[in-house]
Amino acid sequence: MTKKELVRVYVIKSLVDDKMTSRDAAEVLNLSERQIKRLKAGVKKDGEVFVIHKNRGRKPKHTIPGEIREEIVFLARNKYKGKMKAKCTSNKVK
């Protein structure tokens, strides 16, 4: 779990054990009271796992397949080098 998720679990458990109010929990986690109620219900039902982001470890659905990505990078670096300067100046594409 990330640090953020661990803090959420601790605060929600404190809320479940009546050591904290929903308002205090909302303030600590910077969420609305409605979201706190949702988290509390989820943790009661599913346990700590409820706090973990459900999309962890998966590729985004809109990811460009590797072969197509490589083709785009190849064209940008070779065929269109200097012609698309404004759009291809990022060093992030490797």
Q: Could you write a compact summary of the structure shown?
A:
With 94 residues, the protein is mainly α. It has helices spanning 3-16, 22-29, 33-46, 66-77. The chain is built from four helices and no strands.
What does the model show?
The two termini are 30 Å apart. The mean pLDDT is 85. It is elongated, with a radius of gyration of 22 Å. Helix content is 51%, strand content 0%. The chain has 94 residues and is mainly alpha-helical. The chain contains 4 helices and no strands.
Low-confidence stretches: none
Q: Give the overall shape, derived from the CA principal axes.
A: elongated
Q: Work out the radius of gyration.
A: 22 Å
Largest beta-sheet characterization: none
**Termini, distance in Å?**
30 Å
Number of helices: 4
Give the structural class. Answer: mainly alpha
Secondary structure tally: strands: 0
The H/E string reads HHHH
Helix percent band: 40-55%
**Mean pLDDT over the full residue set:** 85
Strand content: under 5%
Which helices and strands occur, and which strands form pairs?
Elements: H1 3-16, H2 22-29, H3 33-46, H4 66-77
